[in-house]
Every structure is written in structure tokens, then in C-alpha cells.
Amino acid sequence: MVQLQVAELGRVRGGEEQRAAPGTTQKIDQFLANERPALPCVVIDRDEVRCRYSLLSEAFPNATIFYAVKANPMPEVLAALAAAGANFDLASAGQAERCLRLGIAPDRLSFGNAVKRTQDITRAYRNGVDRFAFDSIAELEKIGRAAPGAQVFCRLLVDGKGADWPLTRKFGRDEEMAVDLLSHARALGLTPIGVSFHVGSQQTDPSKWHTPIATASRIFHGCAAGGVDLAFLNLGGGLPAQYRTPIPTLGAYAEAIEVALTQYFGSSRPQIIIEPGRYLVGDAGVLRSEILLIAKKSRRASIRWVYLDAGRYNGLPETQGERIHYRIRAPQRGGRCGLVTIAGPTCDSTDIVYEHSGYELPLDLEVGDPIDFLSAGAYTASYASVEFNGFAPILTYRI
Ligand SMILES: Cc1ncc(COP(=O)(O)O)c(C=O)c1O
What we know:
This protein is α/β, with parallel strands linked by helices. It is about 25% helix and about 25% strand. α4 packs parallel to α5 and α8 packs parallel to α9.
């Protein structure tokens, strides 16, 4: 029987997380082998999600965890996390309704998107959601009209360095403006509670929380001087999954954050929120695709093009700019490996997964072989296009 092996193996994490590091689980592999699901698909192991939640709770005992629903909004994933005690960060009113339908109480929901349609604020507010992010006066005014009295927090601008998937530029306001906006919130009939930031997704440098925590503490002082007491600090997401490059341990992140909180807030620490998405579900899923075609561009070409049934528009959007480097598992028949360009199935030439990242796959690969993207539980199925080129959205299975 042909063995599936990781052709591009990044080192796994050491220490306490060794068991969860490979980016797949025995249950997922058994499911793929026994059920032979229709492809392409993403398979999520909820036990692994639960395990991540408990590791996270242990590492951050003094923080309240809000799972960022956008990372993987499968109802069964939300239900597993809800049962484990998680709260939920929302990007839309639709996500609020999905959580409410699962019986999750509205006081466990936070609307963290700083750009919202007024009707969506109203919808969420009427459903009992009482906590909203903003980063502009216009958004604050919208919330003031649509959700009178609601709790609001201001998102800070950060540089996003060190993140493989940065969230810079689009969101956040600088320190001075944050103080002005928070101080103005009361005049609009709102309840200013604090600040949030996001250091960028797949943040590989634990020290990147330091500067925004320092900024947040100055904003707390600035607001207090104007009579507005803040008591809420949302440290965002950013905790990484295990892709091709080694990453620091969860403990290293917890320690760096703890040191910064102690340095800047001392004994008057606000309520601390974390909003992980990728960390909780990334390593709990595998994306299995199938090879549709293997071809070379000329007789002399050394690089093979491997075309898959999954691609940039169906399950692998985070390979845009070749930013997220999944570990790839391919059948090994004992032969050598060679450089490949990996592409998706659509007629769009932007649908190239990896061209410049040095991926190698076995030379004896065949059309019809499975190709697995490991640690693919986050931002894969939830990003799939509805029907680009007529391809159905990638299937998802949970076990
Ligand atoms: C406001 C907010 N919170 C949390 C997250 C989750 O981030 P991550 O998946 O890096 O943990 C995101 C991701 O885009 C976000 O925009």
C-alpha cells in the first residue's frame, strides 16, 4: 500500500504541545482512509479543538477566551467550544444568529468588526449583543443610534510585523485618536469600556504584544484623566498554527504577554480578553485534495506543475502571496522528490497555490493521488468561493 508522508516537513513544536503538533490526528487519518469522502474536503477533529481550548485556558488562566468565529464557523465546532466554556467574537450579525441558534447566550458574544452595517448593529443589539468594536467617529455614531447604551471598545492601530497574515492598515486608530473617541462615546449615549488590538494573524513573535499593551495603558491613563475609566483590554488573536516554519510554544506567548501586562498595568489590571481563531482550529483540520493533472511547460522544464481540485478560490485562500506555508503530505512510493508549482483547478491564472516557496513533491506522483494540506482547520472552508468557475464550495466534515 502507498504510504502518505509529509514531503515538506517543518519541525514540530517542542515541550507541552508535542502531541498536537503534526497538523493531523489519528482520527482524521482514519476517517480519510475508511470513509474516502468526496474531494476536495476539510476534515475537522473536534477533540483536537477541545484540547486546544483547554491548553489555552491553562496558559491564560486570567483571560476570557472569545473564539473568532470567522476562523471556522461550523456549527459543530462552535457547539464544542461553547460546551467547553468559550465566548465568541463575531464579524457579522449572521454569525451572532448562528451562535444564538446553538443556544449560546448573547452575553457571550462580542461584535469585533469595526466596520458594520447599521441594520446589522440593530439586529445584533435586538438579539441581546451588547459589546461592539469601533475605530472611527462615524462607526461610534452608528452604534450610538443603533445600540443605545451599548458597551464599546476602540481598536488600536498596530504595525503587524512578525505576522505571516498581517491585519495592518485597514483597522485601528492611533493612540491620540483612540483617547478622543473613547472620551466622546459617553456623549453619544454609549458605555466606553476599553481597547482592543490585533497583532496580525499567525504572529510568529511573542514580543509583538508588548508595544500595543504599553499603548493601551497610556490610553487608559489618558481617558482616566478626562473622567472616563476603562476596564477592558482585548489582546486579539494572532496565536499561530503549526505550518512549515517552527513556531514558539504557547507558553512563550503567555509569558511575554504576562510580562507586558505586569509592566504596564501592575496590580490594576483590566479584564483581559483574548480572541484566538487560528490557534484553536488550525491544527485540528486537514484539507484533502486530489491531483487533476501533472504537466511540464516545455521539454526542457525541470519544474512540474501539479494541478489540484482545491486552490486559491476553494480552500486555500491564505496561500495568496504565498504567505501561509502549509505542510503538504503526499503519497510516497520510495522515489525521489523534485520541485513543483502547485495550482488550483479554475481557469484563473491567479489560482496558483505555491510557485516560489520551494515545495518539492515525489517525482512518481500520479493523477488521482491525494494531496493533504496539514493544519488546515482555519480560514480554509470558511473562505471558499460559492461557485467560482462552477466549482462547488469545498466540503467540510467534522468528526
Ligand atoms: C477582530 C479579530 N479578532 C480575532 C481574530 C482571529 O485572529 P487569529 O485567527 O489570528 O487568532 C481576527 C482575525 O481576523 C480578527 O479580525
